[in-house]
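Notes from hallway chat w/ T.B., transcribed later so I don't forget. T.B. wanted the structure written out for a chain they're using in a teaching module, and asked if we could keep both sequence and structure tokens in one place. Agreed to drop them here.
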Amino acid sequence: MKPTRMQLLLIGTMAIWGLNISAIKVLTTYLDPLIIACVRMVLAAIVINLTLIWSRQPIKLLNISRWQWLRFLLCAALMVYVNQIFFTTGMQSASASNSSLIMALSPLVASILAAIIFREPLTRMRLLGVALGFGGVFAVVFSSPGASLSGPGLGDLQIFGAMFSFVAGGMLIQDLARRFNAIVISSIIYTLGACLLCLHLAIDDSINLTRQSMSHPGIWPWVLMIFSGIFATAICNMYWNRAIAELGVARTSVFQYWIPVFGVGFALWLLGESFTLWHLVGLLGIVLGTYLGTQRTQSVPGATVPAPSKL
């Protein structure tokens, strides 16, 4: 694919990911967060597996060692199960604007973890970036009157936990990526993660899972669910992985700066959320901090920036 066309697809992907945050915010007003997480990930797993079958990629499951299966399971637990529970639960109280800004820390957190794991030195400029990035989030989260670690404050913390769990899981993929195709990895991780969510949903007695409760919200929430699970999660992430293969991690990761722009924009337009001076300060701090904090003075083998949290 031509680089220009791929870049346009990446901007479109960022727009869909930004819109997806507002979509999840709306869904939490109709359905239980666990139901949202479960249905979205099942849809994503189905689409990814169908794509894998269509691409005729060889899958030799019997050749996967126990250690590799354990790593796959841990990645699925962090990147799908824990990530989605934190994300959908947090969206009940966190605003879409705040969530968009917090999610923008993904490449910065990935850079910090990569520096720790691969022993890459943290320069003064990168430390300044870390301070600016987290300072921007602090300004956004605690600028509202009465903000605390309950209600909206707790929701923001859960969104941060969702982002961190995905990035941490991404660090574990490095070894798997040397042995398996990207779509094979996605297929296994999403299938295992969806199974974990379905198991949780099946044993949770507090959730009223009946045909009447599922049909009560009407058609519109299920349209959003299909958009979120198939387009925002499955298809967009496959485009993201393809962009990494064609453009490289460094050039592709730059497009992540568009996520908070689209996320906040859609939250203002569709949900009527307020945008204060503190949001602007936080946005500038996060974007500038992420730019400075992800700069590397030298190449470190295996130190890559994973895809943003699968929203």
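Follow-up for T.B.: Confidence is low (pLDDT under 50) at residues 146-150, 298-309. Might be a good example for the class.
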